[in-house]
Design goal:
By secondary structure, the chain is α+β, with helices and mostly antiparallel strands. The protein contains eleven helices and six strands. The structure holds heme C.
Length: 327
């Protein structure tokens, strides 16, 4: 087969592949991965094109045989000329890019030194190299002006910007994917909108047992420092999601409320802390101290051997010491 034909087949294969990919791929994964049957289609196209090339050649040789001997001769000559000049442009451009002198003219550039018969040619630098070098000089000037004089963004700043951008995107994503929260990722929500939604969920579902104020009724007081099942957003979320101890009345809400709603109502519950509602239910459980809270904010005062006062963020809490723990 002729070289040009092989090059054409190769081009058809490559262009065909990228074309199909470009036309068919909509998301991030290539259409060839999503629709493997496409390989068969692609293979068929390439095979078909090879067949076309073979037909063209067969046709040419049949036509050649029908020519008279003189015409065959002139055809041969033309073909030989075309073959000799096939890559002429490339060869000449390549030679020009090298900028070297042909061997016959080397006498013009030979240097005077003669080291035991070893002579040196003063070849010009190849143009591709020289221009490449000029480009680097130009690059250096622009680079220096941009980053040293006009204070362009350097890598460290670029990194900061990328991180800031990513944070914004994460926030956006969280807004659209609120229901991805679970007990491990839930965070206290402080947004007024979230707390209001939490409030209406609380009043609709929880107030019957915990009172609208959270002061407690059938269920425990949710505004004090004492927690049966642990305070803090993660524990409260977990209690709402999984329910309280068996038989106590606090059911699991995860089939009723979406994760985002549980996060909202949990945050609302925590916002009730310290509101001192009227007619509160007596404290149940233990004083909850967030193990992640900054330690500076906690101050412990021993009142006497049975009473201890813990000041958490300027709020004094007094408890009895029982078996080394505060109750
Ligand atoms: C049927 C009554 C009832 C309803 C309705 C109810 N709870 Fe409870 N809740 C309880 C009881 C009882 C407990 C104590 C569970 C235990 O002791 O294990 C409790 C415990 C809790 C606790 C843990 C308190 C602690 O001290 O650890 C939280 C938080 C809580 N409920 C929030 C809610 C939220 C939010 C809702 C609404 C989505 C809700 N509850 C609805 C009865 C109820």
């Amino acid at each position: 087969m002729k070289t040009v034909a092989i090059i054409r087949i190769f081009l058809v294969a490559v262009i065909g592949y990228f074309f199909l990919n470009w036309v068919g791929t909509t998301g991030e994964t290539s259409i060839f991965i999503e629709e493997p049957w496409l390989w068969a289609f692609y293979g068929f196209i390439v095979l078909f094109y090879i067949a076309v090339e073979i037909c063209i050649q067969a046709l040419e040789s049949v036509l050649y045989r029908t020519l008279s001997p003189e015409n065959q001769k002139s055809y041969n000559e033309k073909a030989a000329f075309a073959k000799a000049n096939q890559f002429k442009w490339f060869k000449e451009t390549y030679k020009k890019l090298l900028g070297s002198k042909p061997i016959e003219e080397e006498g013009e550039i030979i240097l005077d030194h003669n080291y035991d018969g070893i002579r040196e040619l003063d070849n010009k630098l190849p143009p591709w190299w020289v221009y490449g070098f000029y480009v680097t000089i130009l690059f250096a000037i622009i680079y220096m002006a941009r980053f040293q004089i006009f204070g362009g963004v350097d890598q460290a700043e670029e990194y900061e910007l990328a991180v800031a951008q990513a944070k914004i995107e994460i926030e956006e994503y969280k807004k659209t994917a609120k229901d991805l929260v679970d007990v491990n990722t839930v965070e206290l929500l402080t947004d007024a909108g979230d707390l209001n939604t939490g409030k209406s969920i609380f009043e609709g579902n929880c107030a019957a047992c915990h009172k609208v104020s959270g002061a407690g009724g059938i269920g425990p007081n949710l505004t004090d420092d004492h927690w049966i099942l642990g305070g803090g957003i993660k524990n409260v979320f977990n209690t709402i999601s999984e329910g309280g101890r068996a038989g106590k009345g606090m059911i699991s809400w995860k089939s009723e409320l979406k994760p985002s709603e549980m996060a909202q109502v949990a945050s609302y519950v925590l916002s009730l802390h310290g509101t001192n509602p009227a007619d509160p239910k007596e404290p149940e459980g233990e004083i909850w101290m967030d193990p992640l809270a900054p330690v500076e904010e906690v101050e412990v005062k021993v009142i006497d051997s049975t009473k201890i006062q813990v000041i958490i963020e300027d709020q004094p809490v007094t408890g009895d010491v029982v078996n080394d723990s505060i109750q």
